[in-house]
Amino acid sequence: MNTSTSENPHGPALARDFAALDSALKEVAQVKADLAWFDSLDVAALEATIAHRRATQAQLLQRIQTAEAARAALPAPNSAPSSTATLLLALSPVLAWVGGHASAQARATRQAAHDRNAEYQRLTGVIDDCRGRHAAQAAALATDLDALAQHQVFDRAGAARCLTQARAERDAAERQLEQTIRHHASAEARLAPIATGLREAEAAERDLRNRLFEVEDLQRQLAAAPTPAARARIHGACTTRFGTGQPAKVIERLQPQLDGAARTTEKWRERLAIATADASNTIDTLVLDASNLCYRNVGSKRVFLGLAVLDALVPALATRYRVAVVFDKSTQRRLDTTPRALQERFGAAVEVHVAAAARGADHTFLRYADGPTSYVVTNDRLRDFTDLAVVKDGRVLRYNLLDRMIELPALDIATRFQNDGELPTLER
Asked: Which helix (H) or strand (E) segment is 302 a member of?
C-alpha cells in the first residue's frame, strides 16, 4: 500500500525484524565456520609445516651470507681499472693503427672486467631472490603460528554453547518475523481498500475544484469583457466546456458538489486514520470475558444469550489470534455445564478457564492478559482494576453487540450468530 496519506504501521517493525533475522543468520554461520575450522585443522601437519618453514628460512639465510661474502670479494662493477690496464686501453687505438690488430692484453683485460661484472650481478640476483623468498616464508610462518596459537586457546565447548544460543536467537527472530509479517499483511488487507477509497475521493474532489476554478475564471473574464462580441465568445466557451453559457449557473451547480466531495474525502481520511491506529496494535493473544459475552443489555433488561455469541466469535478470532475464554462460576452454572464440556465445545486450540467462585472472573482474565501483545475483549467498565497493566495500557477492546451480530471495530471483525432465544444444552 503506497499512499501519501497513510503507510502500513508495521512497516518499520518489518524492516527491523528482517535486519534482526539477517544478523542472527550471520551469527550462526560465523560460529559454525569457527567450529568447522577448529575441527578440520590438522595440528600435526601444521606443526610440520612450521618446522619446514623455519628450516627453509635457515637455508635461505645461509645462501644469502655465502653470496654476500663472495660478492664482497669482487670489485664494484664500475670501479676504476689498474694504471697498466688504463694505459693499455688508452693506447689501444694507436697500437691497432700501428700493428693492424688489437692488443691481446687489452682484450684479456676487458674480458676479465666483463666477467667480474657478470659475477657480481649474478650474486646480487641470488641475494635479492633469497631475501624475497625469506620474507615470504616469514609471512607464511607468522600466519601459521597465529593459526596454531588460536587453535590452542580456542574454547570448543564454549563455541558449541554459542552455536546453540545463536540458533535459539535465530529461531526466535524467525518467529518474530513471521509474526510481524502476519501483522503487516493483516494491516495491509485492512488499510489498502480504505487508502484506495481515499485516493479516489481526493481525485474526485480535485477534479471538481479544477472545474470550479475554470468556470470562475470564465466568470471573471465575462465581468471584464469590454464588448458584446467578447462576452459572446466567453459564453460560447462556457457552453462548449460546461453545457451552458452561464458561468454563474455552473458555479451554482458545482459548488454543492464540491462541498459534498470535500465531506466525503474528510470521512475517508478519518476512517483511514482510525483504521491505521487500530491496525498499529500488535495483538497475539485475546482474552475473552466470556461471562460478559453471554449477556446483552436490551433497554433496562439484561438478556442471557448463552453461548450463541461465543460460538460465532471464537472461531473467527482463533484463525488470527491465540484465544483464551474465561468464564465466572455463576455463568458456568447458568449454562448448566462443566469446564470439560466447555473446553470440548471450543476445541483444543482455544484455552477455556472457569474462575473460582470466590474471586470472580474479572481479576483473572485481566491478570492473564499481562503481556504487551495480549488484549482483553469486554464491555465492562473495569473501574476497580485501573491499577492493572492491561487497563492502564489501554489494551481493552470494546465490542458492539446487536440482535444477531457482534462487531469488534478495532479488529475489523464482525460475525453473525443465531439468536433464537433458546439456551444451548451441553453434555455434562
From this structure: strand 301-304
pLDDT of 141 reads: 95
Sign of the alpha-carbon torsion through 259, 264, 270, 272: negative
The residue type found at 235 is H
CA distance linking residue 103 with residue 106, whole number of Å: 5
Q: Within this chain, do residues 311 and 350 fall inside the same structural domain, yes or no?
A: yes
Helix axes 156-224, 11-40, angle to 10 degrees: 150
- 289 with 409, same domain: the answer is yes
Q: Taking 50 as the threshold, does the pLDDT of residue 191 lie above it?
A: yes
Exposed/middle/buried for residue 32 (C-beta within 10 Å: 0-12, 13-18, 19+):
middle
For residues 95 and 102, the answer to whether their CB atoms sit within 8 Å is yes
pTM of the predicted structure, to 2 decimals = 0.67
Q: Rounded to 5 degrees, what angle do the CA atoms 18, 21, 26 make?
A: 125
Asked if 306 and 418 touch (Cβ cutoff 8 Å), the reply is no
Model pLDDT for residues 239-297, shown as the tens digit of each residue: 999 999 999 999 999 999 999 999 999 999 999 999 998 888 889 999 999 999 999 98
Question: Among 257, 268, 263, 293, which residue's Cα sits nearest to residue 399?
Answer: 293
Q: What integer pLDDT is reported at residue 428 of this predicted model?
A: 35
d(CA 342, CA 327): 10
d(CA 121, CA 113): 12
Residue 92's pLDDT is 57
Question: Burial of 413 by CB count in 10 Å (0-12 exposed, 13-18 middle, 19+ buried)?
Answer: middle
Q: Does residue 293 sit in the same domain as residue 409?
A: yes
Q: Which candidate, 316, 370, 306, places its Cα nearest to that of 342?
A: 306
What is the tally of structural domains in the chain? Answer: 3
Would 109 be classed as within a structural domain?
yes
Is residue 36 included in any domain, yes or no?
Answer: no
| 379 and 301, same domain (yes or no) | yes
Question: The domain containing residue 140 runs over which residues?
Answer: 41-154
CA 22 centroid distance within chain = 8
Q: Are residues 332 and 367 in the same domain?
A: yes
> For residue 319, which of 387, 413, 382, 234 has the smallest C-alpha distance?
413
C-alpha cell at 300: 433496562
12 lies in some domain: no
Given a contact cutoff of 8 angstroms between Cβ atoms, the answer to whether 322 and 414 are in contact is no
Q: What is the DSSP string of 68-94?
A: HHHHHTSPPTTPPPPHHHHHHHHHHHH
| Of the residues 241, 262, 279, the one at which a domain ends | 279
* C-alpha span between 187 and 172 (Å, rounded): 22
185 lies in a domain?
A: no
